[in-house]
Structure formats: C-alpha cells, structure tokens
Write a structure and sequence with these properties.
Elements lengths: L2 H4 L6 H8 L14 H14 L3 H10 L1 H7 L10 H14 L2 H14 L8 E9 L7 H8 L4 H4 L4 H5 L6 E7 L14 E15 L5 E8 L8 H4 L8 E3 L7 H9 L3 E2 L13 H27 L9 H27 L3
Parallel strand pairs: 1-5, 5-6
Antiparallel strand pairs: 1-3, 2-3, 3-4
C-alpha cells in the first residue's frame, strides 16, 4: 500500500491554509500552487533527502513523482525557489507543530490511540561544522545573534548558524581480541541539533517531540515530549533522564517511571539492577528504530540556518515517519 492510497492529505489543508494566509486572488497575479501538493513535495524531500534543486529535477524527471503530486506531463512544476518559499512560510508561521498535531488527531480518529506507555529518547542531528575564532565562539555561547557578531559582514552572518552547538557523545569501546574490556570510552564530537521524541509503545508512532541544540541535556526535555493523552502511565528512558527532579515530576503527574538506573559511583551494579535494566532495554530499543530509519533511510541532516528552520526540517522527518508507519499499520489490517 502506498502513501497516496492511504494518507488522507486533505486533513492537512486547513492548518496549511492558516499558515500561508493567501489572498483571494482579487488583485490578480499568478495563482499559487495547491498547498497540499506543495506539502507533498516536502514529504518527498524528507523521504529521499532531496535539496530544493534536486526536488525540482526529480519531479520533472520521474513520472512516479508527478503522479504522487497529482500532476500530469503538461502541468507546471514548482521550481526550487518556490519550494524554498513555501517551506519558509511554514517556518515564519511556526506551523510544523500544528501540522504534526493535525495528523496525530487523524491517527486517534482512525483507532491508533496513544496507549501502552511512552518510550523517550533523543538523537543528534548533524549540521555542517563551522569554523569560528575563539572570540566568535564565546559570542555565540553568550547568546548573541549572527547579525550582532558580524554587523559589518551581512553575507557572512547569513551563512552562520548561531543556534547549533557542539557536544561530545561517548560510546563504549569494544572488547579487545582476548575478550578483556578496558575502560576506554570513545568521545565523538558532534555539531548540530537534537531531536527529542516520545513514541507510544502500542503503535510506535511519534506522539511528542521537541528540537534543541545538540548541547541541551536530554533529561531536561522529558516533560516537553511526553504525551498526556497516552492511556498508559509507564515511561521508559535511558539513564540521562533519571534525576530526582524528573522522578518527582513524573510521580506528581501520574506517570510510572521505568527509567534505567545508573551504576553506583565506585561500586559495581547489583545483579538485580542489571537484570532490570536489561528488561527496560528491550522496550527502550523500539525508539532507536525510529531514529535509525530517519538517519539511515531518510538521510536526516540539517542544511539550513537557525533553529526555527531546523525545527521544520526535523518536524517534517517526524511527520513522514508517522505517515509511513500509518501506511504500514493500514497494510497489516487491509483485507487480502
């Protein structure tokens, strides 16, 4: 089953129209492209990691893309500038959250209720690395905008992302050939943003998400991504989310914490805690599948400037993941 056969695109028309606020055409001018069709172009870009120029080329080149958009060979195809402007309108209107919420509402109406509890995690989304002087780095860290840092170089300022940040991700070293494990964690520096997400355990849809710079702490975003409509009370997450503050907040709001426990400092982890963490990991692994699809198959990477544009880029990846997940679920329930 394919996207066009399953996804009710018209449910997105109202939030798109609200974001675009187009005139009635009384003043003349070229009629705008259909907003739903333009949104479907963004879906293609997210699915196949296409730039605006690449999207324009492949739409003209592939009949399958034309059919997906509802266009024929003689129809005018939006050029790269038109695609950029459409996405920029969504950025300025901050419409991506409404679009995500509208399709999530359709999921609930279709019987895919958020239930079974929630699994929370975050993933780094890389952006092009920048080369700045020590003084420029300090100015960025202090919260200054690119225009404030480079007031006499507007062209340079337009190409500088003052919202993305560096962070260091630690990964465990593999055992030696003889099987011994040494304490040698591998530090991998990364630059960009983070996609914080919560999926429901029952259906596997992303139900809540947020975008921050890469340096933001995962645990601080827990309350920003949890979905209050989930009928299950359990919350699974890794050790980055375990803190007294988060545990108290979860208890006050009726959630049941099943967050991983940290190893006690200077002491080995007890066997019971280790087994409990292993049980939690089997559930927590499902959210990793979401990020793996977005990064490996969809090629999620930030090539825009600023966190608002990054939010639209990552938000589209989250919407498209839910679209493809919806198609998969519908395929399972469709009659043979």
């Amino acid at each position: 089953m394919k996207l066009n056969e399953v996804v009710p695109w018209e449910v997105l028309r109202k939030p798109l129209a609200k974001a675009l606020k187009r005139s009635d055409g009384a003043k003349g001018g070229r009629p705008p492209f259909d907003p739903v069709m333009m949104f479907k172009i963004l879906v293609l870009q997210a699915l196949y990691d296409l730039s605006d120029d690449q999207a324009e080329f492949v739409i003209n080149d592939r009949l399958s893309f034309l059919r997906f958009l509802g266009l024929s060979l003689g129809d005018k195809v939006p050029d790269a500038k038109t695609i950029w402007l459409f996405r920029e309108h969504l950025v300025q209107a901050r419409a991506i959250n409404n679009l995500f919420a509208r399709f999530d509402k359709h999921l609930s109406k279709s019987g895919y209720l958020a239930k079974g509890g929630q699994i929370v995690d975050a993933t780094l989304v890389a952006a092009p690395r920048q080369r700045n002087s020590d003084g420029e780095k300090e100015a960025i860290k202090s919260g200054k905008t690119a225009k404030e840092i480079w007031p006499d170089e507007p062209a340079k300022a337009a190409q500088k992302d003052a919202d993305a940040r560096w962070t260091v991700k630690f990964s465990k070293a593999k055992p030696d050939v003889d099987g011994t494990v040494r304490q040698r964690d591998i530090a991998v520096p990364s630059f960009g943003y983070k996609n914080h997400a919560a999926i429901d355990r029952h259906c596997g849809f992303i139900r809540g998400w947020n975008v921050t710079s890469a340096s933001a702490h995962d645990g601080a975003q827990l309350r920003n991504v949890l979905n209050p409509d989930n009928t299950g009370s359990k919350v699974w997450a890794d050790t980055a989310y375990r803190s007294k503050k988060n545990e108290a907040w979860l208890e006050r709001n009726g959630y049941e914490s099943d967050i991983h426990h940290r190893k006690p400092k200077g002491r080995p982890m007890s066997e019971a805690t280790s087994r409990a963490n292993g049980r939690r990991s089997k559930v927590h692994a499902f959210v990793e599948h979401v990020f793996a699809r977005q990064k490996s198959q969809m090629g999620l990477f930030i090539r825009t400037i600023g966190i608002e544009r990054a939010r639209v880029k990552i938000g589209m990846a989250n919407i498209v993941y839910n679209l493809t997940r919806y198609v998969w679920h519908q395929g399972r329930t469709a009659p043979a």
